[in-house]
Amino acid sequence: MGFFGAVRQGRKDDVELGKGLWRRAHDRFHRGLDRYHQVLEGVDDEQLYNELVVIANELAGLSPRVRAVCVEAQRRSPSDGLDVPGALAGVHRALSKAGNSLATTAEAAAMLRLAVGPVPVGALSVHRRAEAVFEQVADAERELSQDA
User: Fold this and answer.
1) Rounded distance between C-alpha atoms, residue 134 and residue 141, angstroms
2) How many CB atoms lie within 10 A of CB 122?
3) Distance CA 135, CA 62 (A)
4) Rg for the chain (alpha carbons), in Å?
5) DSSP letters of the chain?
6) Along the chain (148 residues), what's the average pLDDT of each consecutive run of 10 residues?
7) Which of 92, 38, 41, 34 is nearest to 60 (CA)?
8) Number of Cβ within a 10 Å radius of residue 50
């Protein structure tokens, strides 16, 4: 995306996500996703790389879901600050956990990348951490639908 594309996307994000809590939750998730993909660039072991790419693709598939949750949360409870609205506290908690879990997933992938010699269990530790991300995004969706 070029400079003007980034500016247009930023304006669209401001309209749909606001500049507060929901925007921060959305952006944090995307930073974790970017970090995971950066880690992939340094993996030399082809088998491990292939396992990590599958997980990366699955995690990237969560991106539209996270955005949809954040857009809807912003619509219901607009935020330009960092105050968590009581009615959507569960949604925010689940999104925060998903962002944290995504960061630890990237960290686990980085640790595998730095491993010396073959990794006997492959990307199992990364897969376990990615499962937590999926569960927490589903929790955010469930919390949002229960609040409706």
Assistant:
1) 11
2) 16
3) 11
4) 17
5) --HHHHHHHHHHHHHHH-SSHHHHHHHHHHHHHHHHHHHHTT---HHHHHHHHHHHHHHHTTHHHHHHHHHHHHHHS--SSSPPPGGGHHHHHHHHHHHHHHHHHHHHHHHHHT-SS--TTTTHHHHHHHHHHHHHHHHHHHHHHHH-
6) 58 77 95 95 88 96 97 91 87 96 95 72 87 98 88
7) 34
8) 12
Tokens representing 28?
């944090």
- Could you identify the residue written with the tokens 């921060």? 24
Quote the tokens at residue 60: 């990237």
Distance CA 84, CA 93 (A): 9
Amino acid at 72: E
Structure tokens at 137: 């995004």
What does the chain come to in residues? 148
At position 52, the amino acid (one-letter code) is: L
